[in-house]
Every structure is written in structure tokens, then in C-alpha cells.
Amino acid sequence: MLMRTDPFRELDRLSQQLLGANGTRTRPAVMPMDAYRSGEEYVVHFDLPGVSPESIDLGVERNVLTVQAERKPEYGEDTDLHVAERPRGVFSRQLFLGETLDTENIAASYEAGVLTLRIPVAEQAKPRKIAVTGGSEPKKIST
């Protein structure tokens, strides 16, 4: 199961949206995502348009998955910029992964500006059948 609880990230996002990084109102740098279970895996999609695949960095430490990417400006320093509404810079997002996920076998792909992660459910968390035998009296347990 994926858990999405990070109150400090939400506070940072709100303060950046209201004040901006340098005290002026700017648009927040966000990494929107969708997450769902499909069969024996969780699938997570992150919108990262305009990001180079080489700038995407994924890491797992304990049960925390960190996604970091950078969108660089497409213009030089000598450019006379008139409008700058597209967020640039480093984007980062963390997901807290439940103990029932196999963090050793996460697969990642990037296509058309969407980063897709496939996180398998761990074997010990998958449903299983338990055989029931009959015809004999239950054994007594001595204490």
C-alpha cells in the first residue's frame, strides 16, 4: 500500500505558492501524480513535461521512495524573457511505501513527459490458500 502523508511538504508547497521562493508570488513547482493498484503491482505516474530523462533521480531508503528531477530553461542568459510561467528548477517528491511492497524490484520508465513506476506487491503480502485436512482429532498442546 502507498501512503501519502507529508505535512511539512504540504506546508512548504503552500508557503511557496503564497510567497514564492524570493518573496514574490510565483506558481508552485509541483510534480502531479496518479497511483493505483493493478493486479499484483502498484503503478505510479508522475507528470514531468520538459524534463530530460538523464535528470531524473530515483532512490529508496528504508520505505521512502524519493523522486527528483530538474527542468532547465531552454533559453540562454542573454535572452530578454517576457513571460515565465512554466516552473523550472529541481522538483522532488517522496512516497512512503508500505511494508507489503517489494522495493527491490521497482521498475521505472519515462515516455512523453510521464514517469511511470511499477512497484510489485511482496510475496508475503499476496493472498494465499491454506489447505485444510480432516478425519483426525486435533492434537492437544501440552503446556
Automatic annotation (TrEMBL):
PROSITE patterns: SHSP (PS01031)
Taxonomic source organism: Prauserella shujinwangii
Domain spans labelled SHSP: 24-135
PANTHER family for the chain: HEAT-SHOCK PROTEIN 20 FAMILY MEMBER
Xref: Pfam families: HSP20
SUPFAM superfamilies with a match to the protein in the record: HSP20-like chaperones
Family: Belongs to the small heat shock protein (HSP20) family.
Domain of life: Bacteria
Protein name (Swiss-Prot/TrEMBL): HSP20 family protein
